[in-house]
Design goal:
Keywords: Membrane, Transmembrane, Transmembrane helix. This is DUF1700 domain-containing protein. It holds the Pfam family HAAS. The protein is an all-alpha fold. It has a domain of 96 residues. Helices cover 83% and strands 0% of the residues. Helix 1 runs parallel beside helix 4. The C terminus is likely disordered.
Length: 197
């Protein structure tokens, strides 16, 4: 593989990353080719030593997604990290994805229930005093306030559970990938065994 082919495939694989991040990565890999040329190695040897550019791009995107998640724990960062890690192919998607989708569906349903509970508490608190609520207006106000407080508490606990789920999934995928990496990259063994000792 030539330098141009390697860099073109790597650039295609990095689509979706911020432009400056992708440019920095491409500059680093161009420097690898420059260093290899200075050392008397051919472009094909350097490309072979660097590995598959498509897989390399997936790894770099996964690391960028995980880094973004550690910096800003938002739903979009969580989704980006999960899909980037799944893109590595390090997790057995056939087994894990249905389980993950079930858990995500359950969490989403719980969040909808929390919103409904908060809305009903607000409704009881506002409309209860005017609707002849049993116990009077003050009881309606406090019952509504209690329902809203319960919804906020459950919502906070669900948020913590979601963060723990995303962190656990990323941890598992990275661990699983590190264990599989030697088996997935036989060219690394071949290139080191071919070097004279």
């Amino acid at each position: 593989m030539t330098r141009a082919d390697f860099l073109a495939r790597l650039k295609r694989g990095l689509v979706g990353l911020p432009t400056s991040t992708a440019a920095d990565i491409l500059n680093d890999y161009e420097a690898h080719f420059d260093d290899g040329k200075a050392a008397g190695r051919s472009e094909a040897e350097v490309a072979d030593a660097l590995g598959d550019p498509d897989r390399l791009a997936r790894e770099l995107k996964a690391e960028a997604g995980v880094k973004r998640w550690t910096q800003e724990q938002t739903p979009s960062a969580a989704a980006g990290a999960v899909f980037a890690v799944l893109g590595l192919g390090a997790i057995d998607i056939i087994i894990l994805l249905p389980i993950l989708m079930g858990v995500i569906g359950t969490l989403f349903g719980c969040f909808v229930a929390v919103i409904a509970l908060f809305g009903s508490g607000l409704g009881v608190m506002v409309a209860g005093p005017f609707a002849g609520f049993p116990g009077g207006g003050l009881a309606a106000f406090f019952i509504g306030l209690g329902l809203m407080a319960c919804a906020v508490t459950v919502g906070a606990l669900l948020s913590i559970a979601t963060i723990l789920l995303v962190n656990g999934l990323i941890w598992f995928a990275r661990l699983h990938y590190r264990l599989l990496k030697p088996a997935l990259e036989p060219h690394a063994v071949n290139s080191t065994s071919g070097d004279p000792a």
